DNA sequence: TATCCTTTGAAGGAA
DNA sequence: TTCCTTCAAAGGATA
């Protein structure tokens, strides 16, 4: 078993080592999420067959320039650990025609460098000038193609706020709001009328639009249903997107925002704060308890911080992301000014970080290396016990 | 039944 | 100006 310099086409994790893979198994579908990329089973070059448990995950054939190997054991059939019954691979990642890459992330241009590139730098105003100053002539639902792009199969996508995008959709356009009682009485909506009243939801941002589009695909590929897990995958995919790809969603989000502004001129995001005051009993604080708001909830800039999953999501941007000076077990390493140095100065300007933040960052890096090394040792041990 | 989880981005308030 | 909090979607899990 080795780690491959490749990427899981489901969770988009980068793998660690380069060992000329032939057949690989991704562990991202297992109860335990990927820890350091995906754990792969490697069969001897040119040979294909059953993989060893417990890796029952998806199958990826990594050499897309070659036709599928003619071997009765390929693709392998896995046994569902719960039912004991054979089950097909979850992800149709078998070789694409030569020259094609079955997954957009699986392109030769994709490197670890692009994986670690900074976040999308554009602000909501980054597209200023790209659009007419007024969209007042545009219908909320069209014209067809207004909000479409090659990756989105919903030209003129109905606004989530207007039509209701799903079970949790509550926002209605003013017209639909007034009609909501009719629709309720006619049985078209199962939402209690009182839940819909005057609640104008925020326009979706770029990532939300991306999620909305990609979620069904991920569900179809992975058979996952839990949104937390799906969102982690989507987050990785989002980071793995090309800048141009992300730009499409930022553009859509900008249009969404403009339309929202026109529909609800006096609306403020603040309006929704009160509506959900009952919510969020207590976003979990750090283990130290009462560690202040900087650690709890959406701190660390709101995202990418020390989420509970960051320890297991490994390369997903968790790990050393965020100012680790907020680690409760850190005694001397408290960031004195509580300015998160990493967030403030970025990873490239560590010289400007305060000492505690820097040392903690080094520690966390070392911890990740240790984890990798442990895993590598485990892998090597298994290889020695079960030589390929 | 309500909230949490999990993601990123945007908005708004506090310092 | 910077940081922090909340909310947007989604649906299973949990209290």
Question: What does the model show?
Answer:
With 388 residues, the chain is mainly α. A two-stranded antiparallel ribbon has the order 1-2. The protein has eleven helices and four strands. It folds into three domains: 1-116, no CATH class; 160-275, DNA Binding (I), subunit A; 320-385, no CATH class. Strand 3 and strand 4 (86-87) form a beta hairpin. The N and C termini lie close together (8 Å). Helix 5 packs across helix 6 (227-240) and helix 5 (206-222) crosses helix 7 (243-263). The chain is globular, with a radius of gyration of 24 Å. It binds a DNA duplex (15 and 15 nucleotides) through helix 5, helix 6, helix 7 and helix 8.
Extended strand count: 4
**Order of strands across the biggest sheet?**
1-2
Biggest sheet: strands, sense, closure?
A: 2 strands, antiparallel
| Assembly status | single chain
Biased composition (Gly residues): 287-305
GO biological process, one term: canonical Wnt signaling pathway
Domain HMG box: 200-268
DNA-binding region: 200-268
What is the gist of this entry?
The chain has 388 residues and is an all-alpha fold. Helices cover 31% and strands 3% of the residues.
How does the SSE layout of this entry go?
Layout: E1 23-25, E2 59-61, E3 78-79, E4 86-87, H1 112-115, H2 160-163, H3 174-185, H4 193-196, H5 206-222, H6 227-240, H7 243-263, H8 271-275, H9 310-313, H10 341-345, H11 355-385
Antiparallel strand pairs: 1-2, 3-4
The protein binds a DNA duplex (15 and 15 nucleotides) through helix 5, helix 6, helix 7 and helix 8.
């Amino acid at each position: 078993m080795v780690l491959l310099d490749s990427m899981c086409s489901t969770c988009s994790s980068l793998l660690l080592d380069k060992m000329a893979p032939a057949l690989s198994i991704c562990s991202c579908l297992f109860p335990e999420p990927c820890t350091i990329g995906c754990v792969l089973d490697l069969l001897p070059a040119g040979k294909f067959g059953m993989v060893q448990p417990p890796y029952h995950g998806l199958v990826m054939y990594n050499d897309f320039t070659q036709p599928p190997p003619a071997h009765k054991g390929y693709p392998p059939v896995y046994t569902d650990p719960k039912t004991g019954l054979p089950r097909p691979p979850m992800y149709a990642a078998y070789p694409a025609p030569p020259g094609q890459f079955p997954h957009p992330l699986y392109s030769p241009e994709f490197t670890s460098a692009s994986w670690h590139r900074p976040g999308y730098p554009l602000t909501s105003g980054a597209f200023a000038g790209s659009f007419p100053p007024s969209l007042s002539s545009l219908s909320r639902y069209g014209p067809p193609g207004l909000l479409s792009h090659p990756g989105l199969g919903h030209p003129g996508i109905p606004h989530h706020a207007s039509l209701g995008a799903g079970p949790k959709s509550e926002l209605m356009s003013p017209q639909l709001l007034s009609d909501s009682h009719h629709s309720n009485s006619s049985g078209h909506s199962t939402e209690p009328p009182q839940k819909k009243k005057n609640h104008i939801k925020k326009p979706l941002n770029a990532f939300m639009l991306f999620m909305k589009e990609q979620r069904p695909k991920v569900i179809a590929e992975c058979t996952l249903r839990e949104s937390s897990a799906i969102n982690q995958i989507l987050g990785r995919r989002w980071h793995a997107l090309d800048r141009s790809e992300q730009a499409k969603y930022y553009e859509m989000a900008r249009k969404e925002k403009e339309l929202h502004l026109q529909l609800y001129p006096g609306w403020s995001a603040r309006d929704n704060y009160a509506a959900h005051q009952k919510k969020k009993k207590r976003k979990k604080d750090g283990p130290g308890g009462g560690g202040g708001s900087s650690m709890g909830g959406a701190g660390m800039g709101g995202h990418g911080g020390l989420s509970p999953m960051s320890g297991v999501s490994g390369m997903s941007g968790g790990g050393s992301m965020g100012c680790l000076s907020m680690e409760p077990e850190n005694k001397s390493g408290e960031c004195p000014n509580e300015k998160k140095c990493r967030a403030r100065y970025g990873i490239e300007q560590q010289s400007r970080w305060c000492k505690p933040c820097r040392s903690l960052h080094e520690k966390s890096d070392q911890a990740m290396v240790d984890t990798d090394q442990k895993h590598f040792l485990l892998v090597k041990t298994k290889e020695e016990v079960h030589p390929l």
